[in-house]
Design a protein that fits this description.
4-stranded mixed sheet; 506 residues; Ribosomal Protein S5, domain 2; 18 strands; 5-stranded parallel sheet; Rossmann fold; alpha/beta
């Protein structure tokens, strides 16, 4: 007897359909799983055998062959346990054969309970895309699956419960759609930061246009304090962005069962000892790294020169392309990586180079050696470079709070609204930092005064073509914050000022 039912697997963070074909035939008792299964899928045989027996069914004494199609794609994970069991029970005629509009996924325990799996949102979205109407999955995963529109999600606690539903004895009620709570922007606030008005201005520009930012200053000047408050001024995510981010964390198993939708932009701050695969992603079974976990949010690298050079260099391609591709012999996967890079560093090893106090103990050669750990191509991809000096005593004695994040966020959101209208209909560009050559020509036209200013900057600062484009993008954001349609000399001059920092002792 042959039975086929539908399921879904994961390739990167995308779901794809898997047909689970179960065949019971005469012959010596055996249980084979084919279709390029990994070790976890092969071990499902013992879980299924025990789950069937402990759920009140008799395990068939026959030759069992389960095929996972497409057979040429490697299958990994434990989500195929439940569909394989359903196929075997249907082939035994213990339960009716499921309809073609049904799909199953879930891990089994030996006693017949259905355990949660990772990546449910990606698989649920794929199920809706492939015309599935009824999705049966672990009860703990049900809230996450309801985020995919067009599906009836059935939360399954055990094999016995699922069998009772399929036979019509005791139907399982569909899960109600999960609704997020209203967003709250509590926590760290710019009102806590004393002084550093120039750095605050730069962070507002970075947030308004999605630009990369580097803060340079001595220890205790507030670089980390400012960076950790950046999420408080970022605009909220759209529904599509929330689903994108949630898929990444779902694949990693880092989504809350009670609140499965991530509604706040990620803020990732890996330690400087992180490896290149930890940052970019990888492993024998590829998994997203920190740059993908920062998708649609902020990747903060504190003490930038302390990171390994080979680790930092993996940032270059994802910063340009907005994605990272992990290649293995068995194939390759692509993860999204559209993030704001925010870095902080000292100007030298001791941290006090250039300070008026003269506390720096580093030789000129030591300063150059320390700064050379950050490559020129990486610096060329950073839009704003800001000096963060020591906070004066008068600013520290400031009694009243500084401007709160809520006020800054209003200006940032207003600038983002302008950009959203400007790039309406463009599926790729959503903010100024992502502008392509065509948008630069259309929205960053320079008059004679601005062209002359840019020519001087190009010659004196030895800018590259990439630097030229990035200055235009920042100037466009500054103009948006001012509510100006045209780029003025003041906008361009401020953008150029953010690239005038001189690296090294010479």
């Amino acid at each position: 007897m042959l039975c086929s039912c539908r399921s879904f697997g994961l390739e990167g963070i995308a779901g794809y359909e898997v047909a689970v074909e179960s065949d019971l035939s005469p012959g010596l008792p055996a249980f084979d799983v084919v279709g390029l299964p990994d070790a976890a899928v092969k071990e499902a045989r013992e879980r299924i055998r025990s789950a069937i027996r402990n759920s009140g069914f008799k395990f068939p004494v026959s030759r069992i062959t389960v095929n996972l199609a497409p057979a040429g794609t490697r299958k990994s994970g434990t989500m195929y346990d439940l569909p394989m069991l359903v196929g075997i029970l249907a082939a035994m005629k213990s339960i009716p054969q499921p309809g073609t509009d049904c799909a199953f996924l879930g891990e089994l325990s030996l006693e017949g309970k259905v355990r949660p799996v990772n990546g449910v949102l990606s698989m649920a979205l794929a199920a809706a895309r492939f015309g599935v109407k009824k999705l049966f999955l672990p009860a703990e995963n049900a809230p996450e699956a309801t985020l995919a529109e067009g599906l009836e999600v059935y939360p399954v606690e055990s094999v016995a419960q699922l069998a009772a539903h399929l036979t019509g004895e005791e139907p399982i009620p569909p899960a109600a759609a999960w609704e997020p709570e209203p967003p709250r922007y509590a926590g760290l606030d710019f009102a806590d930061v004393k002084g550093q008005e120039q750095a605050k201005r730069a962070m507002e520009i970075a947030a308004a246009g999605g630009h990369n930012l580097l803060l340079i200053g001595p220890p205790g000047s507030g670089k980390s304090m400012l960076s950790k408050r950046l999420p408080s001024i970022l605009p909220g995510m759209t529904r599509d962005e929330e689903l994108e981010v949630t898929q990444i964390y779902s694949v990693l198993g880092q989504v809350s069962r009670r609140a499965p939708l991530i509604t706040e932009r990620p803020f990732r701050s890996p330690h400087h000892t992180i490896s290149a695969p930890g940052l970019a992603g990888g492993g024998s079974t590829p998994r997203p790294g920190e740059i993908s976990m920062a998708h649609r949010g902020v990747l903060f690298l504190d003490e930038l020169p302390e990171f390994r050079t080979d680790t930092l260099e993996v940032l270059r391609q994802p910063m340009e392309d907005g994605c990272v591709t992990i290649s293995r012999v068995s194939g390759s996967v692509t993860y999204p990586s559209e993030f704001m890079l925010v870095c902080a560093m000292n100007p030298c090893k001791c941290g006090w180079y250039g300070d008026p106090s003269g506390r720096c103990t580093c030789s000129p050669a030591a300063v150059d050696r320390y700064l050379s750990r950050v490559s020129g191509p990486l610096l060329d991809r950073i839009d704003l470079i800001i000096e963060v000096p020591v906070v004066p005593f008068e600013d520290l004695r400031q009694i009243g709070p500084s401007e709160p994040s809520s006020a800054v966020r209003e200006r940032v959101c207003a600038a983002r609204d302008i950009q959203r209208q400007r790039y309406a209909g463009d599926a790729i560009v959503s903010c100024n930092a992502a502008m392509e050559a065509a948008q630069l020509r259309a929205f960053c036209a320079l008059d004679e005064t601005c062209a002359g200013l840019m020519r001087q900057a190009f010659d004196r600062l030895h800018l590259t073509a990439r630097s030229y484009d990035r200055i235009l993008r920042v100037a466009r954001t500054i103009a948006d914050l001012d509510g100006s349609e045209a780029l003025g000399p003041q906008h361009l001059a401020e953008a150029i000022r953010y690239r005038t920092f001189r690296f090294g002792s010479r």
